[in-house]
């Protein structure tokens, strides 16, 4: 997701040690401020146009509609994981991985839930119309900006990536965190493929998720944690005499 995704706050808040905790607040401000300022600018532009799509929105939609043959079923399957129980399940797993405690699970769920409330408030305030329904491959309801699927998957995927990097900072942890972020990007892109969102709706969701994670992950990082997971191959962990 580049700059408009959860990687920045995830990397900033991951890891352990007193140095990380001392830098948590300044890093949070450095990451959150640009994301939230960019979101404010984008929101103002959307409002100024009364919801009329940008030229890039129309161009991206045309490309998606002209090249999505055969992608409908896969896009519907992937997009279904970006709402409902799955994101909250991932957030709960993230809280448990990060702290190994029920309180950590509750805190991670609270981050996701509160982020949803912010997103819903922004969506109601902007009230941007969705793209024309004649291009939809999936049912959709409510206003268009910011994308609920993009925001939700970025929050859940970002939480999980942060927890994995925090508990298993080696190669396996980075690979798993990358998969979590790729899932979030994939879910968001399906909304354009299915014709129910403009591309700028996704950007708005990513910016909101980035800013929100940057503000909240340093708080989660203060929860006590278990020792980091070993990064040794499984066969060495099962038989200490090997190697």
From TrEMBL:
The chain crosses the membrane at residues 27-48, 177-199, 205-223. Keywords: Membrane, Transmembrane, Transmembrane helix. SMART domains: acidPPc (SM00014). Residues 102-217 form the Phosphatidic acid phosphatase type 2/haloperoxidase domain. It comes from the Bacteria. The keyword Membrane applies. PANTHER family: AT30094P, SPHINGOSINE-1-PHOSPHATE PHOSPHOHYDROLASE. This is Phosphatase PAP2 family protein. The lineage of its organism: Bacteria, Bacillati, Actinomycetota, Actinomycetes, Kitasatosporales.
């Amino acid at each position: 997701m580049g700059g408009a995704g959860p990687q920045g706050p995830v990397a900033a808040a991951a890891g352990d040690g007193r140095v990380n905790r001392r830098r948590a607040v300044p890093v949070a401000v450095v990451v959150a401020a640009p994301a939230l300022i960019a979101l404010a600018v984008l929101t103002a532009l959307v409002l100024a146009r009364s919801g009329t799509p940008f030229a890039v929105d129309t161009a991206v939609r045309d490309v998606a509609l002209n090249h999505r043959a055969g992608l409908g079923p896969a896009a519907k399957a992937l997009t279904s994981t970006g709402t409902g129980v799955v994101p909250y399940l991932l957030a709960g797993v993230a809280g448990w991985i990060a702290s190994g405690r029920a309180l950590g699970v509750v805190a991670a769920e609270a981050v996701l839930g509160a982020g949803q409330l912010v997103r819903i408030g922004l969506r109601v305030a902007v009230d941007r119309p969705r793209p024309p329904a004649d291009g939809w491959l999936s049912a959709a309801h409510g206003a268009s900006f910011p994308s609920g699927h993009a925001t939700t998957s970025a929050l859940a995927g970002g939480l999980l990536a942060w927890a994995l990097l925090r508990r298993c900072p080696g190669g396996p942890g980075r690979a798993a965190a990358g998969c979590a972020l790729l899932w979030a990007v994939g879910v968001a892109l399906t909304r354009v493929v299915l014709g129910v969102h403009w591309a700028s709706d996704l950007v708005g969701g990513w910016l909101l998720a980035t800013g929100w994670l940057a503000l909240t992950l340093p708080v989660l990082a203060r929860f006590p944690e278990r020792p980091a997971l070993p990064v040794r191959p499984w066969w060495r962990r099962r038989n200490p005499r090997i190697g």
